[in-house]
Amino acid sequence: MDTIMKKLIFLLLFMLGSFKCFAFNMQHLNAATQDNNKNIYFSSHDGVYRFDGSHYLNLSTFSDLPRRWTSDVIFQSPGFLYIAYKEKDVWQFNLNTLEATKLSDITAIKLAANNTHLFMLGREQLALLDLETLEVIKPLSKKTKMFDVSASANHGYVMANDGVYVINASSTRLIDNTDVNKGELVATPYGVVYFLNDHMTSYSYLNDVKIVNDEITSARHLRFSPPYFLYYVDRGSINQAEINQLSVLQKSINPRPQAYKDLFVDDEQNLWALDVSHFEVVSSKVRLDRLTAASIYNVIATVNDKTWVGTDDGLYAYSDGKYSALNNLNQQISKLGFSVTALQQESGTVLVTTNLGAYVIDLNTEVVTQFFKGYVINLAIIDKQIYLSTNDEGVQIFSSDLSQIDSGYINKFLPHEIVWATKKLKGKLYIANEKGLISFNDRGDASIELEKYAPVADVQLLGNTLFAATYGNGLFKKVNGKWDSVVSPLYINELHSLSQELYLSTNHGIHKFSLDDAYTNLLEGTGDHSFTPNGILSISDKIVAVSNQGVIRVKRKRHEIVPNSGISYIQTNTKTYLNPETLKVNNSAWLDIALTNYIYTLNDHINYQYRLNMSEWHDIPTPLIQLNKLNPDAYTLEYRSRVDGAVWSKPQSFSFDVSGAWYSSNSAMWFYAFIAIGLIICITGFIFFWLQSFHRVFKSHQTQLQREGLSVAAINLANGIDLCNGNETRLCDGLVKLKKAHDILNPIANSHASLGHNDLATAIDMLHVKCLSRDGIDSEFNVTLGKDVLTKQLQCDIYAVLYHAVENVFKHASATKITVHLNKVGDKLILQIIDNGKGLSILTRSVNFGLGYYVINSIAKEYKQPIKRSSSRKGTKVVAQFPIILQPKPIQSRTKNAQFI
């Protein structure tokens, strides 16, 4: 499914990108011009558009130019556009200041400019506007019809109904007084070239000499291309001539004849053709010599250093753009006509395969001999034997003397009798046929290489990778014994390899593929051509081939290094800046920065990246950087580009400033962040020391309470003892007094773990009994101390930690179970108190003023063993460690007993 989707996407891209054609929402394109920054301007039905290869801008959207139908636009250095509107008005637009100025109310159909004057051609008159004084004069007026105007550096030329004029600032001179019915002209640095009625003329101003070419009987849209070339349209075909002798250099440069509105040549000598609603770059990398015969299936070969073309109408010799039928040979093959499928020279003979059979032509005697009868699709010479791929008889093999060799062994393995191609690669014979690809090794063992419903048209090696072309399912490559589909045209006729590149002949152009590519790429200028097997003659620095239209020469496109990008324009919510070198803007909601490489003929996809103030590089899907809500500050923008798979170009930088209130700048933001962090640190420190002061006050308060409690407890003890010596009533009062004394003394005593005469094990047992006596909570004590006797202080400290931890569970945990473990592990005693209560919150663990908390922590500090507390919604776990400190054994003195002497 992924492969099908890739194919569909490729076909869509292919259909859109067969030509470098740019379409957009414009109609009635009449003229084009280019400024010093490589931007191209088009006149249209709704104003003038600026195009940089990637972006369109209507000049009326950010200037005072009217957004109306324009008839012409021209550029005049150092930075002015002159625009003629169809109904009326001529305007000047300053590309540096973006100021638009109305120059005249004249209705002009064509404009031209030299160093001093603007030529405004009306329907019946010519007006000259002095570019310095803005005064208008009319050197030619009251003509029946004005045809065209053009200007060079110092003077202009006008074609009117009564002839061709040269116009200077103060004079007008007729250089050709022929009555004009139709015609156009174009100025050159040397003079003017004009087509008048039915012939072309080149006029030299310096020598006052004319050269006439009567063979050019139709020409429109004349366009000069430095240094001495001329383009014109002859009945829909674009031709090229040189201006000195008016000799035609190339015919049918465009891939298909069509009607045009105008031609334009940019500063890189790219030829543009304007239609009513679109424009395209006519490839200068392709030369076509159109075949006059109505043949759509053509083949080509070199015969004795001459080029032969095989067509649907027989054999032709091709030389210097002209075709001549080889009538003698054609008559010998068939007087009723035939279609040539392959041509190949072998020594002094030429092998010709056709829809009628296979023939050999003796080049010395020009005698034609048929050696096979039947439809032959292709021809191959393998190991000095002739292999014919036929339409209904499989593979037919002949020796060099044209004796037939039995091919039954090969044909019995073929899944179909229609064979498209036979080829031997690295010792293997491959047969591409209607149902798949079959191979035979040097021992004759047959293998099915590829089975497809669509025919396999050809097979080729690129390096060590085998490729198979199908007519209907596209291109496949064999990787690790498995055939993988390559995104490519579906209908492929033939494969050629050169170095590390594979070339595909298809019904829609020649495509190129490299092993590093993800898909095939159409060679520029070939998309309108259809190719058959044996249609490519040679591949070197240029490809020579024959298509359904004639012989074409295609310059091979080397791997291009993308030139450095530039900033075409910057738009804010208030203003547009064209080709800025630096910028200072007020704080705005958004900023659009348009990048371009000014590559009008690069078909490969270009990737762009940018970063701001040395941050990370960001990919952008289109060459448009969109920045939003920039704080006032100085910024450095870096951007770079690359063709897919190539290295990034050298980063270009652009500095700009965003102004605004100081308190919203980036520096202010850093200052705010610094202040905020400082405040957080101060507040945190204040809270910490504030809590510590609470702890100190609480400890002091507890000490004072303990002192006061001891006094109260002593009084209660004395009163209780005294009352217990009386009657029953006094006895009850005395017990109450003793209970109060106990309540006061108990926490005081346990704060220092006063065990009295009890040892640790006995005290823990008593604590366990106390826990068991509490309702709603289960308790489990696991104590293993061994026989060693611990110091009294250590026992007191362990008990104190255990006691307060248990008391905290009773008071705060809301637990239903408590588990106590006290075990000897190595040289340590590990005490664990675990409950299933509600746990301790962060606040409870941080802000704790309980007595048990201080007792436990103070004991842990004494032993340099921190208390580990872990708490969750499932309960709390307290772990304390104590070193094993044993009670010293008493030293028994040895005394001599006299009775044992």
UniProtKB/TrEMBL annotation:
Keyword Signal among record annotations: yes
Transmembrane segments: 669-691
UniProt entry keywords in alphabetical sequence: Membrane, Signal, Transmembrane, Transmembrane helix
Residue stretches making up the Histidine kinase/HSP90-like ATPase domain: 798-883
SUPFAM superfamilies: ATPase domain of HSP90 chaperone/DNA topoisomerase II/histidine kinase (SSF55874), Calcium-dependent phosphotriesterase (SSF63829)
InterPro entries, sorted: HATPase_C_sf, HATPase_dom, Ig-like_fold, WD40/YVTN_repeat-like_dom_sf
UniProt signal peptide: 1-23
The protein, known as: Histidine kinase/HSP90-like ATPase domain-containing protein
Source organism of the structure: Pseudoalteromonas aliena SW19
